Amino acid sequence: MGVRICIIKFGALGDVLRTTPLLHALKEKYSQCHITWVTDTDAIEILSRNPMIDRLFSYSPDIALRFQVEGFDILINLEKAIEACLLASLTKAKEKYGFDISPFGTICPINDFADYAFRLGISDDLKFRKNEKTYQEIIFEAVGLKYNGEPYIINLNEDDLAYADSLLLEKGIKKGDLKIGLNTGSGLVFATKRWTIEGFAGLSDTLSEKLGAKVMLFGGPEEEVRNKEILDLTEIKPVNMGTKHSLTHFAAIVSRCDLLVTGDTLALHFAIGLGVTTVAIFTSTCAQELDLYGRGIKIVADVGCAPCYKGSCEDMKCASSISASDVFDACVGLLNKSSMFKAQEPVD
User: In whole angstroms, what is the distance from residue 277 CA to residue 40 CA?
Assistant: First the structure.
């Protein structure tokens, strides 16, 4: 097995995905190693396709008992949830990085490497206003490694891609069409990540009218009503792609977009990992932590109260401060740079 490494990372699926670049660096540093990853049940479907993970466990209290017997050479816990830190504290390992539990029962950095990542979680001033590092830079630093732009790891199989192609064909979207996806939601925990319904509707009409684009509405089950409201507001109806796809099927549909417009949510991470050109809208979260790998544009709300990371808000000034014309201009700018438009006149 070589160097036995255990990674503990669950929580939001987007955060799990943007932790996968770390695997490249670990495999490069330890040419012969065996990597175990502990995650949430929701992430198993995506991580099970990852060829750099040798063993994958869904978190349960039994794992703590197992790891006290097995032991590892290196333990990396990048999750600040109490159960993850307890597991890290109990697991036998020669070296530990990230976070665990102090003798006082509080979450703490294991060593100086993780001090910056820890302070980001307790200082709004540092996280919201001073930090300029991406998430990847932060977690690489927490384990004593240097981030060199290592990519996400998302593997889709032929069945996933065939599902996406069949759905597009069923919806009347052809191979040569300009396909622009609008991911309209953000899940239930951070509703403040959403852009406005009116903004998406106005953008959809402009993309259809001025670019002749096939506009597709994306979202999860929570966005079913929201997407219907957007459809009702549009003059030129976008294509509703449905809200009940599996994770890998949804990722495959995203992969077929020429351009995706989305908030800071799972679809954004799928787009980043699959190389899809993206306009990323940031309302209540920190744009600087996202690495778009040079394939996108960030539109950030310019209001004094953002970012805030609140779960809900009555007025949502951050979302309403971003206009449909701002987002459309960003779309045009990216499309004019993309290969599918290089042989054509720039679009207006």
Answer: 29
CA-based angle 24:297:266, to the nearest 5? Answer: 55
Question: Which pTM does this prediction carry?
Answer: 0.94
* E strand map for 117-211: 179-183
What's the pLDDT score for residue 127? 96
Left if phi > 0, otherwise alpha if psi is -120 to 50, otherwise beta: which for 251? Answer: alpha
For the stretch 152-163, pLDDT in tens is 999 999 999 999
129 torsion bin: left (phi>0), alpha (psi -120 to 50), beta (else): alpha
Cβ distance 37 to 56 under 8 Å? Answer: yes
Q: Classify residue 97 by burial, with Cβ atoms within 10 Å: 0-12, 13-18, 19+.
A: buried
Please give the helix or strand (H or E) that residue 261 lies within, else none: strand 259-263
Tokens (6 digits) for 298: 């960030």
Residue 39 β-bridge partners: 58
Cβ neighbours of residue 192 closer than 8 Å, sequence gap 6 or more:
186, 283, 284, 308, 309, 310, 311, 312, 313, 316, 318, 319
Rounded to whole angstroms, the Cα distance separating 277 from 298 reads 11
Does residue 205 have a pLDDT over 60? yes
Is the link from the previous residue into 307 a cis peptide, with omega within 30 of 0? yes
How does pLDDT run across 168-181, given as a tens digit for each residue?
Answer: 999 999 989 999 99
Q: Distance of alpha carbon 300 from its chain centroid, rounded?
A: 17
In this structure, how many other beta carbons lie within 10 angstroms of the beta carbon of residue 336? 13
Triad 211, 215, 220: Cα angle to 5°: 155
Q: Which residues neighbour 166 within 8 Å (Cβ) at sequence distance 6 or greater? A: none
